[in-house]
Each structure stands twice: as C-alpha cells, then as structure tokens.
C-alpha cells in the first residue's frame, strides 16, 4: 500500500469486518416447489429401454422422476396440452397416478430411468390397519362415554 491510501481513512460504511466463519450465518437456501418432489433415500429405480419408433405407456403409482439417457425421448402426459422433449440427462417430475406415453425417433433405443421413494413391503396394509385401529378405538371410547 502506498502512503496516500494509508493516510486517508475509509468511511465506516466501506470497511469490511473481519469474517471468522463463526460470526456469519450460513446463506439461506431458497425453498423451491420442486423440493417436494425430491426423493429421500432409500429410493428405488426402474431402468428400461424405449425402442425406436415405438410408444410405451405407463402409470406411476407414487411421485417419481423420469431421467433420460442415450437419446431424445418424447413424453406426453395424460390431460396435458404440452409434450416434453427430454435430452439425455434431463429430468421430468411426475405426480402420483400420472399416466405418460414415451417414444423416441432416434435410430437407437433410448434408456430411461424412473426413480421413486422406496416403500417398505406391506406399507399400505400397515397404514390401513392403523386407520382401522384408530376408528375402533374412537368407537370404543364413544360407547364407553355414552354408558
């Protein structure tokens, strides 16, 4: 530094406070709507190929993400006026019970991966049993209060 810059003090608003790392809060991560689609681990993935000049249809039973590998895939969603052209590496988020049609015009098959959160075996049966148990408990409580 030269003598001139040392002699003229900087205004208070221009001085930077020393940052130690402990006196700063971490930057806030903005909440995105797409965060609700991100699948926690463990996740299950299904890999398959879309043959050239053929159309496949499928319905996803849980929120899922479709990722394309190898060739451009044309995806049409049920009840949507828009078509989606996904390049290799692109991802499309799907809602529960959504039906899609996949096709490719490439000369080679396109590889597609559908990823969703892993559901333990008999999870639906377990939740149904829990709901029935809650209803029975409420009925028993109501009948004991009436008596």
Automatic annotation (TrEMBL):
Pfam families: DUF2917. Residues 1-37 are annotated as: Disordered. Residues 1-11 have a biased composition (Polar residues). This is DUF2917 domain-containing protein. The lineage of its organism: Bacteria, Pseudomonadati, Pseudomonadota, Betaproteobacteria, Burkholderiales.
């Amino acid at each position: 530094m030269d003598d001139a810059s040392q002699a003229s003090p900087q205004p208070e608003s221009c001085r930077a406070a020393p940052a130690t790392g402990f006196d700063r809060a971490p930057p806030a991560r903005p909440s995105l709507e797409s965060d609700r689609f991100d699948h926690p681990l463990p996740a299950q993935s299904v890999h398959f190929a879309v043959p050239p000049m053929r159309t496949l249809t499928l319905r996803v039973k849980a929120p899922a993400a479709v990722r394309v590998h190898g060739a451009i895939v044309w995806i049409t969603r049920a009840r949507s006026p828009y078509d989606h052209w996904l390049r290799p590496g692109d991802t499309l988020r799907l809602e529960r019970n959504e039906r899609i049609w996949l096709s490719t015009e490439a000369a080679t098959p396109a590889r597609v991966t559908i990823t969703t959160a892993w559901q333990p075996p008999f999870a639906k049966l377990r939740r149904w049993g829990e709901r029935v148990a809650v209803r029975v408990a409420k009925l028993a409580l109501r009948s004991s209060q009436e008596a």
